[in-house]
């Protein structure tokens, strides 16, 4: 009989912290929506958008760190280092492209 065990990811140990941070970001985005609804000053809205982007960047960097330390290291041990490195660099490239 096969077990359906959830795989361990690079972020598994800090999953609760990650979800708390994402919930906070979600609240910030809702706040931006309210600011638009209330016709707030453009620069104030842009400032909040910048804060959300910075918070998301911090989450992304944490995920990348966990991915390198867990998934890429594990892949290298299994002889998949080159493929994992290629995948990682593609993800970094996507994160760096904006607007």
What keyword list fits this structure?
0% strand; 76% helix
Explain this structure to me?
- By secondary structure, the protein is an all-alpha fold.
- Helix content is 76%, strand content 0%.
- Helix 1 runs antiparallel to helix 2.
- The mean pLDDT is 89.
SSE topology sketch:
Elements: H1 15-37, H2 42-77, H3 81-96
Give the N-terminus to C-terminus distance in angstroms: 49 Å
What is the tally of helical segments? 3
Largest sheet: none
Uncertain segments are: none
> Helices and strands: which structural class?
mainly alpha
Chain-averaged pLDDT: 89
Radius of gyration: 18 Å
How many strands in all? 0
Residue share in helix: over 70%
Principal-axis shape equals: elongated
Can you give me a brief rundown of this structure?
The chain is mainly alpha-helical and 99 residues long. The chain has helices at 15-37, 42-77, 81-96. The chain is elongated and about 55 Å long.
């Amino acid at each position: 009989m096969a077990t359906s065990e959830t795989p361990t990811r690079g972020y598994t140990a800090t999953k609760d912290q990650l979800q708390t941070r994402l919930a906070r970001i979600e609240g910030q985005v809702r706040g931006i929506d309210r600011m638009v609804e209330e016709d707030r000053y453009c620069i104030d809205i842009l400032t909040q958008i910048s804060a959300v982007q910075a918070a998301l960047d911090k989450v992304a960097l944490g995920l990348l760190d966990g991915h390198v330390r867990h998934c890429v290291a594990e892949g290298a041990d299994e002889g998949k280092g080159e493929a994992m490195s290629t995948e990682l660099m593609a993800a970094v490239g996507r994160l760096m492209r904006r607007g």
